[in-house]
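Supplementary Text 2. Reproducibility record for the structural model of the 127-residue chain.

All settings were left at their defaults, and a single model was retained for analysis rather than an ensemble. We include the record here because the model underlies the residue-level annotations in Supplementary Table 4.
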Amino acid sequence: MAMFTHVTVGTNDLVKARSFYDSVLGTLGYKRLTDLGDGGSIWGESAPEFFVLKPANGQPACFANGGTISFTAPSRAAVAAFHKTALAAGGKDEGAVGPRDWAPNAYAAYARDLDGNKIAAYCFRPE
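Retained model, structure tokens:
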């Protein structure tokens, strides 16, 4: 059984967030599954997994200090494409593409989205 039903981040500009995540998550094989009007959008492979929403309380969205959302990448090349696409779409570098020593075969890259949320892509397949 999966640990999470879904993960959500907030945004202050839904139009820009949709464009960013359409391109960045597309490099990993995920797609936008549905829009929730002016409230947000949902991405996943075939089921809702990642939500980008305007905060329900009407306050500005902010990122979690110390928080990271990491997506499964199908290959090391997809990790590199994720990072390159995130930076080209206006994201900020938070960790170059390469091996990570905390787990066998861990290969990852980190970026911040347009609202400052830290995102990563990980592949655990051998080279």
